[in-house]
């Protein structure tokens, strides 16, 4: 070690690797722009998928209600509700369920119970969700999802 001097506290050379503050700000700005442009589209896909999921669940409930009808000769009353497809109502002697794989009736994708009315105003029964807003009516993702206008609603969802 004779004659060798170590440079422990020397300043870095001017051409050393690393990022300047300007470079970091440019990259962060670009990332911010991408998130700003892509984020709303992703959120819209998420809401659209919830609407489609509600339509599939209503379709599945409709098939289960048809099986109930075949066994009992009638649809469950409004008082019996949709629970009649997973638990035997006291008034149904010919019940051969449960008519769903699950023993619990799932909520709609927004965490609300599906609504059921029999006899219905639009058919033998009305089965519907109030959509994202949880209230009657609405537009877009807040619109009601029903068993009586599935064809028209599916066409409007596919146009988005």
From TrEMBL:
Q: Where are the transmembrane segments?
A: 20-43
Output the GO biological process annotations, alphabetical, semicolon-separated. Answer: protein secretion by the type II secretion system
- Membrane topology summary: Single-pass membrane protein
List keywords of the entry alphabetically.
Cell inner membrane, Cell membrane, Membrane, Methylation, Transmembrane, Transmembrane helix
Listed Pfam families: N_methyl, T2SSG
Compartments it resides in: Cell inner membrane
Q: Which PANTHER family match?
A: GENERAL SECRETION PATHWAY PROTEIN G, TYPE II SECRETION SYSTEM CORE PROTEIN G
Its family remark reads: Belongs to the GSP G family.
Q: What is this protein called?
A: Type II secretion system core protein G
Q: Which organism is it from?
A: Rhodomicrobium udaipurense
């Amino acid at each position: 070690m004779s004659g060798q001097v170590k440079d422990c506290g020397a300043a870095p050379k001017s051409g050393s690797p690393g990022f300047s503050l300007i470079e970091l700000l440019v990259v962060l700005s670009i990332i911010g722009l991408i998130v700003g442009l892509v984020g709303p589209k992703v959120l819209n896909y998420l809401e659209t998928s919830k609407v489609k999921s509600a339509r599939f669940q209503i379709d599945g409930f409709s098939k289960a209600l048809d099986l109930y009808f075949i066994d009992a000769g009638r649809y469950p009353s409004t008082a019996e509700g949709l629970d009649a497809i997973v638990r035997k109502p006291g008034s149904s002697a010919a019940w051969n369920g449960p008519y769903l794989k699950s023993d619990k009736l799932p909520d709609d994708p927004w965490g609300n119970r599906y609504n059921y009315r029999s006899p219905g105003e639009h058919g033998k029964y009305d089965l519907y969700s109030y959509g994202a807003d949880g209230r009657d009516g609405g537009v877009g993702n807040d619109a009601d999802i029903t068993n009586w206008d599935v064809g028209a609603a599916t066409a409007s969802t596919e146009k988005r």
